[in-house]
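User: Can you help me understand a structure? I only have the sequence.
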Amino acid sequence: LWYEVAAGLNALRQRRWGVALKRFTDVEQHMKDMHDDQCDWHARCVRRMTLPVYFDLLTLMDKVRSQRHWQIAAKGAIEAYLELDDQRKRNPDAVEDPH
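Assistant: Let's start by predicting it. Here is the structure, written out as tokens:
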């Protein structure tokens, strides 16, 4: 996660909005992958009766969106989207493709 956040922030500084959005959406994809893994982990924990470990995972997943990397990526993505929207309003023909 730290690499995508750092690369996204670097692209923001360089005013490369599409690259920044790509990096910040990669963080979102990691979060989705973690959620999918949680579903697999749920079945394993129930099957093996390792409930304390499962409760620890549930506690972690409840706090995923409050992690620093997620918050920085979300803020950066919002900043890039707002800048692209401002550019589109100023000059509709000169906006960089966000992907």
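Now, to help you interpret it: The mean pLDDT is 82. The chain has four helices and no strands. Let me know which part you'd like to focus on.
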